[in-house]
Amino acid sequence: MKITVLGTGGFAYPLVFCECDYCNKARILGGKNIRKRASILINDEMIIDLTPDCQVAMNMYQKDMGKVKYLLQTHTHLDHFDINHFTSLDYKYCTKKSKELILICSDECLKDIQNKASQFDRMDLYNEEYLNKIKLKTKTINHGEILSCEDYIIKPIYCSHDERIGAQLYLIKQQGKTLLYATDTPMLTDVTLQELKGEKIDCIFLDESFGVQDYTFSHLNIKGFDEYIKTLKQNNLLSDKCLVYATHITHDGNPTHEELNQILNKNGYNVAYDGLEFEL
Questions:
Q1: Spatial CA neighbour of 187 closest among 213, 149, 156, 223
Q2: Residue 155 and residue 181: Cα distance in Å, rounded?
Q3: What gap in Å lies between CA 171 and CA 205, rounded to an integer?
């Protein structure tokens, strides 16, 4: 399983109009301190979250969005879902596609995407004839269910980040490897642990939005991040050599990449950065 990190920021870092010390320092240092909105690409064919930055990232890292077969959407908050990218699938934009794109999300997430799309264009994501015309297929799957696509097994996992729009995490298995993508999540719940029961996670990308700030509601800070991983370990859910990456990093409490890496490395964790690529 090849992982390409397209973005690691929560609403981007540095924040667009912000002049705080962290943002100013990131602009000066550049490199790994510049974070596009959080998204990853798996095997060059499966993308998690169609963010406002994902097309720029794909171009930067020599990837082809036209070759993407699967779009897994965690939820539709603005930093995770870009309606302009999505509506470009409509035939009136002259999009030529050789491959069908399969959108995978929760029922509530699809409803919200349809609501957003109908405000801009007359897209009908529940009309099979229309979907065939734009080479799009939708598969709704909710936490507690399992979906098989070719050699992938996709298992949505419950999180309480925003239940109104069906926000969920994704556990993805392929060729004996298991990845958990867990941005935009507060602390673990009993439901989440139950749905993960029996799994052995080889790699996790976990929300670390608020760094040293004393804030954990709907997201995690460094303390919450550490407690989350320790709870997974206590429940025997991580493989012996599990790779742990912090992502969805905001300017609100998170220092430079190097400083944050030094803090998290003490507990064996890594800080993801834009453009990171590795084989799992």
A1: 223
A2: 11
A3: 11
> pLDDT, tens digit, for every residue of 60-88?
999 999 999 999 999 999 999 999 999 99
Match 């990456």 to its residue by tokens.
Answer: 245
- Cβ-contact 254, 22 below 8 angstroms: yes
Between helix 257-265 and helix 222-234 the angle, nearest 10°, is: 40
Q: How far apart are CA 173 and CA 254, in angstroms?
A: 31
The CA distance from 280 to 270, in Å, is 15
| Residues 203 and 170: beta-carbon distance below 8 Å | no
* Cα 121 to chain centroid, rounded: 26
pTM above 0.90, yes or no: yes
> Which tokens is 124 given?
């009908």
Count other Cβ atoms within 10 Å, centred on residue 210: 24
| d(C-alpha 222, C-alpha 213), whole Å | 8
- Which residue, 101, 104, 48, 50, is CA-closest to 78? 50
